[in-house]
Amino acid sequence: MTKEQFLSKLDASLNKLPSQEKQDILQDFEEHFAMGLAEGKTEEQIAESLGSPAQIAKDLIATYHVEKVEATATTANIFRAVWAVIGLGFFNLVIVLGPFIALVALIVAGWTVAGAFIVSPLLVIINTVMYPEIFQFFDLFFSIGLTGLGLFIAIGMYFATRAVTSGFVRYLKFNVRVVKGGMKDA
Questions:
Q1: What's the number of CA atoms in the CB half-sphere (13 Å) around residue 79?
Q2: Which residue of 25, 55, 57, 84 could cross-link 62, Cys pair, CB 3.0 to 4.6 Å?
Q3: pTM metric for this prediction
Q4: How far apart are CA 179 and CA 55, in angstroms?
Q5: Residue 161 burial class via C-beta count within 10 angstroms: exposed 0-12, middle 13-18, buried 19 and up
Q6: Rg (alpha carbons) of the chain, rounded to whole number
Q7: Is residue 186 predicted with pLDDT exceeding 50?
Q8: Distance, CA of 53 to CA of 64 (rounded, Å)
């Protein structure tokens, strides 16, 4: 594969990155080819030593999205990073997606419980308006207690969500390093 073919395939594979980021990467690979040619290597040898442009692009896209999550950990950025890391290999479908789904389910369940406990007095009031004959003070006081517990759970879920998010970002970075390291040894 010639330099132009390699860079063309790499350029096409990097279409998910911003244009400035893509241009910087292509310039780096052009410099790599220039250094290789200065050492007396052919374009084909340099392209072969670099590997597949498609796989290089997958690695770079995954790294870009993981770094973007580190800068701003929004839900959309996290999902993009997870998807990019899964794209590195089929094995990652199980290794990344499974824990991600489990953690998201736990976080959603925790926030749902906190929300339900917090609004429980409102539900008791609505129930009392609809069926006044079944009102009991115990229900009202119990729901007020649940509100306090719900507030504590919400505070805990805030910190748990932040911890799980940062831990999962570290896990994604580790996974990208393992995949890249595994490819260098192959």
A1: 4
A2: 84
A3: 0.62
A4: 11
A5: middle
A6: 26
A7: no
A8: 16
